[in-house]
Structure prediction request, 272 residues.
Amino acid sequence: MSKKGLLRAFAALCGILVTQVVTADLILSAPPRESAEAGMKTYGPLADYLSKVTGEKVVYQSPANWGLYQAYMTMGQYDLVFDGPHFVSWRDQHLKHVPIAALSGTLGFVIIARQNDARVRTLGDLNGKGVCGHAPPNLATLTLYSQFPNPSRQPMLVQTKGFDNAYKGLLAGKCSGTVLPIETYHKLDAQAKQTRVLFESKAYPNQALTAGPRVTQAERERIRQALLSPSGQMESQPIAKTLGGSDFVAATFDGYKGYDELLKNVWGFEGH
Prediction:
């Protein structure tokens, strides 16, 4: 069976296990960074707001895990999706999703090592060593891997949940390096007393909401205008606050073009 077929089989199996069926005209989703309850608290109000804006019943669907999210997302089961620039770019290329609005600001990452680790002075010194981080397709981890294009000379991922825990794991010697959002790094070690920066990424466009083919052009425009309005900014505050942004700004594909390249070697994406 092909990889795409395996993803579909996995999604179908998970669907059988779902006991409550939610009917909706349009489905909104986002990566499972938090519990289902926390996800509903963050994205549920946005779904209700978009229902009023579009006249359609928009329902937030929380995926149980990253595998299910990837399966449903790549199959085009979600109509409105809020996630990172690599996914935004991929959906535009493969699912005809269109960026609607994005969090203001940019994303950036640093790869760091312990200040007192004499074995790791440069980025190349992480070859073959453990690096604390999230499993792909997390953008931070993909940023790390993009600096090591030779698979035989990549760091070994020590899977860690949460950037704070990745940082603690580094200091505790569980790994030789980690990759963190720049803002998180500045909060944890602003004076660079405990760690040293080996690499700082370019700025990526921030996370964005995209709309798929089942969302009409008129609905897309109503959503865009609504999210940029004062009332829309208020409705989106739970998302902005959770993800470190301040408000929404207009988004177009030009700002996200090419970032799907980060997914080219990730299982489930490369075969599309």
In short: The chain has a mean pLDDT of 90. The chain has two domains: 3-105+205-263, 109-201. The longest helix spans residues 36-54.
